[in-house]
Amino acid sequence: MINFEESVRLVCLQERVRSATYHEMRKNGHHKSSEGHVSLAFNLPAVIGDDRDPYWSLEVYSYLLCPHGRSETWTGRSAAEVIAQGEVAIGKWCMSAEMEQFGERMGINDRDDGIGDPVPETDADDGMPF
Fold first, then answer.
1. How many CB atoms lie within 10 A of CB 109?
2. pLDDT digits (tens, 9 = 90+) for 58-97
3. In what order do the strands lie in the sheet with 37-43?
């Protein structure tokens, strides 16, 4: 059983994946089945041949965002531990899409440097940006 805080963290994690996925799908509109699937499980090892203690696992499937294939799985001794591992990784997965979305909301276009100030034009005489 996971507590309310862990449930909220898990839902927030999937919402980050969902938002970044929709953003990426606007650039590449092909439908990806199972995209954004999140699974939290309590695992009891096999009776024979597995001497591990019970453990938790978090799996996130994201063909569009996962840098190591189509999904990634984190394991640990508690739900909180694996959710924390997922939050760190998902933060990295979603960063580019979130920054692009932020730029769109702020009205920053392709010529901007991402900080909010337009990239200066170069002077035609010497090529310097002043």
1. 9
2. 999 998 899 988 899 999 999 999 999 999 999 999 998 8
3. 37-43, 55-61, 71-76
> Which H or E run contains 37?
strand 37-43
Q: Domains in the chain: how many in total?
A: 1
Q: Report the residue count for the chain.
A: 130
What is the value of pTM for the model shown? 0.74
- Between β-strands 55-61 and 71-76, what pairing exists: parallel, antiparallel or unpaired? antiparallel
Tell me which residue has tokens 């001497």: 51
Q: Is residue 65 part of a domain?
A: yes
Distance CA 102, CA 109 (A): 11
Q: Are 34 and 20 in contact (CB under 8 A)?
A: no
Residue type, 66: C
User: The domain containing residue 61 runs over which residues?
Assistant: 4-93
Is 71 among the domain residues?
Answer: yes
Q: What's the CA gap between 17 and 37, in Å, rounded?
A: 9
Q: Crossing angle, helix 4-27 and helix 79-106, to 10 degrees? A: 40
Q: Which of 7-16, 62-71, 101-110 has the highest mean pLDDT?
A: 7-16
Using alpha carbons, select from 28, 29, 59 the residue that is nearest to residue 43. 59
117 token code pair: 């100030």
